[in-house]
Structure formats: structure tokens, C-alpha cells
Write a structure and sequence with these properties.
It is built from 13 helices and five strands. By secondary structure, the protein is α/β, with parallel strands linked by helices.
Length: about 270
């Protein structure tokens, strides 16, 4: 299994004092060809581990994907998770809450979609939107943020008791790279459909939004639930990093196939004819 070494993965771990200080275009001296060779083997290994997770039905993993528009959240799902048995995968993409969801606590729609034991859950955007996008979209006031943050931190503090292990990743791209990717979407019909009027506003407010996200990542970074800031301007590296981080989470679980006694013997099976 060809995951990236811990030194590379740990370099992506959030620095609370400077969340976005590192270059989102850095490549660690790695190259695309090596990534293309490593990723198929890594995806196959992840599928095997997810099947063991499912068979044991004790722990669950939650991959949290955040990042600016066009950072590659959808791309990670397509390119990293495409070999995993969909029966053991629970994927949810969260958009602006609708009127029905807003009648509940902001965490309600996320709580009900946390993965059950044995499952790998993926949140394409997550409960962190309730402290960032909800503010920029005018759904809440700044005065509501401290209370929301405390409820969010309480939610994450309760995950270990459920044997639910979060892997929180923020995909980092520069404003120039975001502009280039938005321009590509404008020019290609197969990507243009993804554009929303809010994408232009978010691009114009890139600096303010990054500042807010930096504050939020710093406030919610912990030993038990750390953030990883992934340099995402090289798609091949982004995918290799995400697959490697997920592989390391599986390694920590030390999953084996369950050693349960079979419900019947070979003799019973053969004698049933």
C-alpha cells in the first residue's frame, strides 16, 4: 500500500497560529506520474479496509470536506472514493438549509446523517457551514456564532463515545486559482451547470471568507479532531494526500476480519441435501 509518509501528511496539519500560511501550490517534491501509479493501489487497499470496517460494525469514519468553491470536493469523491463498495459508503452533500431545516437547530440535519457503525461517511460541506456560510448568506448574525461554536464543539467531543472518528480536511486554493477554475466552468458546458450566482459573490469576498474560515478552523482544531489543510492546486497531489490521510485513519483502527463462529458447519451444509 503506497500511501504518503507521515512527514508529508503531518505537514498538512493545521497551524492554529497561521491556518493558511502555506502555499496551496506546493508539491513536496512529488510528481504526477508517481501519484498516478500509487493511487489505484491505494484505492484498492481503502476498499478492503472499508469492507473490514463494515464487517466488524463497531467503528465508523467521517470524512469532512470543506474548502472554497472549485477547491475540488466533488473531485475527491469521484477520484479517491470511486473504488469503495457503495453499500458501506454514506455520502451527503449539504447546500444552504431549506425552510424546513431552518426550523430545527442548525446541527439537526447533520446529526441525522452521521454514519452508523461499519460505515464510511462523507460530508461534502458540513456542520461548519453553520458558522461560515450561514453568516455570509445572512441566515444568522455574528452574535449567534459563539453559541453555535460551543454546540458544534460539544457534538465533536461526543463522537469518540460513539466510536465515530472524524477526518477533517480543508482544501486550500488561492484566489487566482479559484478564478481560473470558475473561468473554466464558464467555458465548458459539462461544468457550467454547476455555477450559481453565489459563486461570483464568494469569489469577490474571497479574502473575508478565508479570514472567517481561518478563525473557525483555529477555534475547532484539537488533538482528538484536528484539521488538515490540503494544498489543492495540483489535483493529483490533492487526491494522493486525501487517500493517504484516509488510509492512515484506517491503519489506526487495526481492522481484522471478524473471528466469529459460523452459524452452521460444513457437515450440516452438505448433509442438508
Amino acid at each position: 500500500m503506497s500511501r504518503l509518509p507521515d512527514t508529508v501528511l503531518d505537514d498538512c496539519r493545521l497551524d492554529p497560529a497561521a491556518p493558511f500560511a502555506q502555499d496551496p501550490a506546493r508539491d513536496f517534491g512529488l510528481d504526477r506520474k508517481s501519484a498516478q501509479l500509487a493511487l489505484p493501489e491505494l484505492r484498492a487497499w481503502l476498499n478492503d479496509q472499508q469492507r473490514r470496517l463494515w464487517a466488524n460494525a463497531q467503528d465508523a469514519l467521517l470524512l469532512v470536506l470543506q474548502g472554497p468553491d472549485c477547491a475540488g470536493k466533488d473531485g475527491v469523491i469521484r477520484r479517491v472514493l470511486n473504488a469503495i463498495d457503495p453499500q458501506g459508503l454514506r455520502l451527503h452533500s449539504f447546500k444552504q438549509p431549506d425552510a424546513g431545516e431552518r426550523r430545527h437547530d442548525f446541527l439537526w440535519r447533520y446529526r441525522r446523517r452521521l454514519p452508523a457503525p461499519g460505515l464510511l461517511g462523507v460530508f461534502n460541506r458540513s456542520y461548519y457551514e453553520g458558522l461560515a456560510s450561514d453568516l455570509f448568506d445572512g441566515l444568522i448574525s455574528a452574535a449567534e456564532l459563539p453559541a453555535r461554536l460551543q454546540r458544534l464543539l460539544a457534538l465533536e467531543a461526543g463522537l469518540p463515545a460513539q466510536r465515530l472518528h472524524p477526518l477533517k480536511c480543508y482544501l486550500q486554493i488561492s484566489r487566482d486559482e479559484q478564478q481560473a477554475r470558475l473561468l473554466q466552468r464558464l467555458q465548458r458546458p459539462d461544468k457550467r451547470w454547476k455555477l450559481r450566482p453565489s459563486d461570483l459573490l464568494a469569489y469577490r469576498e474571497y479574502a473575508q471568507r478565508q479570514q472567517r474560515w481561518g478563525e473557525l478552523l483555529t477555534a475547532s482544531h484539537s488533538q482528538a479532531a484536528p484539521w488538515y489543510v490540503i494544498p489543492a492546486e495540483h489535483r493529483w497531489l490533492r487526491d494522493w494526500l486525501l487517500a493517504s490521510l484516509l488510509a492512515r485513519e484506517f491503519e489506526r483502527l487495526q481492522l481484522e476480519w471478524p473471528q466469529r463462529p459460523p452459524p452452521f458447519t460444513e457437515a450440516e451444509l452438505l448433509g442438508a441435501d
